[in-house]
Amino acid sequence: MNILVLNGSPKGERSNTVKITNAFLDGINTTQENNINLVNISQKKIEHCLGCYICWKKTPGICIIDDDMSELIKMYINSDLIIWSFPLYYFGMPSKIKAFLDRLLPTSLPSINIKENQSCGHPGRYDLSHQMHLLISSCGFYSVKGNYDALFKQFEIMFGKKLSKIICPEGELLNVPELSGRINSYLSDVRAAGKEYFQHKSFSEETLHKLDKLFYPPEIFIKLANMSWELDNTEDGDVSDTDRLELFLRQMAALCDSSMFIKDIVFEMHFTDLNKTYQLLLEKETCTVKTEDFLPYTTRIEIPFTLWLQFSEGKTNGSEYEKDSYKVFGDTEILLKLKSFFSN
């Protein structure tokens, strides 16, 4: 199968959405090795359509503009599956992939015909009846409703029943290493969806249900998102280690699952490389970060912040040679249960 991947993110390979797309491609290649062309639209020379209609009148099917679109149109026509991969930008698509879409005008004929639903449009210049389309997109909201409505309508008008969708709200979390467990589970579901799509050219209701699940409930996601913007919006753009540390601890507090402990816990952390001490007050209803007026601790750990980050990102599990790098005081059982406290 010839697959054309149109990566419409201005970030290119750094795109969060591309992580989803790559997982899907891994899945679709499980059964058979496909011919995949991945095009980073941001790196291509694509001018805006002039609306001159020369591609309809003087040179049918050929655009007057000399840029990369002539080759891209050939790839488009010869593909069995088109994957549109991009983040949501202002309730639509990023501008350059919209320019690409506009420049597909030579693939249509100038005549107007009436469709079965009594609407009208331009017939295709080429027989693309075999062609399928998949929209893969992520966004920084927790809800598809009210955000993707216009984009969905546009793609449904263009491709009808040949269109499938993988939409990932809360997509900014795909770039957070500390959430790798939750993210990797989602990407595993996307790989399974890719394998299923190869076999059936669609997704089952069960698969769609898995892919539609949010990473976190809206109230938690909003807390995490707003915290990260507070950090990004520093006046000089420079973020100190202390700022990053305090954001990390506030994110920990937001992800705390208070149902996992039956008594109040004071978890104290002294980060030896930064010479900073903080407390997490784990109560039955809330989890808060304390930077002063410390309470007697239940458990205290003395550890470099760099090593603590490696723990949280799953890059290490505290092997013997690392145990010399940290010390634990008080109730050591709390440290063993810490992962379950922050299972969110």
Automatic annotation (TrEMBL):
Residue intervals of the Flavodoxin-like fold domain: 1-118
Keyword Flavoprotein attributed: yes
InterPro entries given in the database record: Flavodoxin_fold (IPR003680), Flavoprotein-like_sf (IPR029039), ISF_SsuE-like (IPR051796), SCP2_sterol-bd_dom_sf (IPR036527)
Pfam families xrefs: Flavodoxin_2 (PF02525)
Keyword terms: Flavoprotein, FMN
Name of protein: NAD(P)H dehydrogenase (Quinone)
Organism listed in the record: Sebaldella termitidis (strain ATCC 33386 / NCTC 11300)
